[in-house]
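Weekly modeling sync, notes
Attendees: S.R. (lead), two postdocs, one rotation student

Agenda item 3: backlog of single-chain predictions. S.R. asked that every request posted to the team notebook include the full sequence so nobody has to chase files. The rotation student volunteered to paste the first one in as an example of the format we agreed on. Action items at the bottom.

Example entry:
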Amino acid sequence: MKKIISAVTVSLCCLLHTTVLNAQTSTVPAVVKESFNNHFKNSQFSRFVQLGDIYVFVFSQGEEYRDAYFTKDGEFKGVGRYIPASMLPIMVREKIEGSYYDYKLSELYQYDCTENGLCFCAILKNDKYKLILRMTPAGEVIADQKTRIKADNHNSYSAIVSDLTRKSVVSK
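Predicted structure, as returned to the notebook:
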């Protein structure tokens, strides 16, 4: 009896997994999927997320996960990844430690954009506020967003970078 229940459970899990994968790949335009495959030939595709008119592919190269950003027309916009504080350029680290000493560094994201080059996104928090910074490798703050901390207030880097990418597409 246990073998039958186990076999049915495994079958249902496989069916669900296959259904989810087919649902994901069926909503990506072929030109976007082809562009991803051309740019990242030796990668392991994990999943994608559509944020407005931007497609974000999560994939791995070796041990590291990355996010690749594409427009609906398949134009490659950039690639990002979460990083530890030890990988920040010294100027960025000094800016955060010097100017935002009353905040604790929560998360870091490195984004390499085809149009604007390399930038870093940092989420800083204290008891009352969450601060999202976008900085150049020289430590210059390009954009910031300060919000009062609420119970469910969480921004993902993919949404932030997608918003930045969308703005650069519109400004063309």
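Discussion: group reviewed the output briefly. The radius of gyration is 19 Å.
Action items: rotation student to repeat for the remaining queue; S.R. to check formatting next week.
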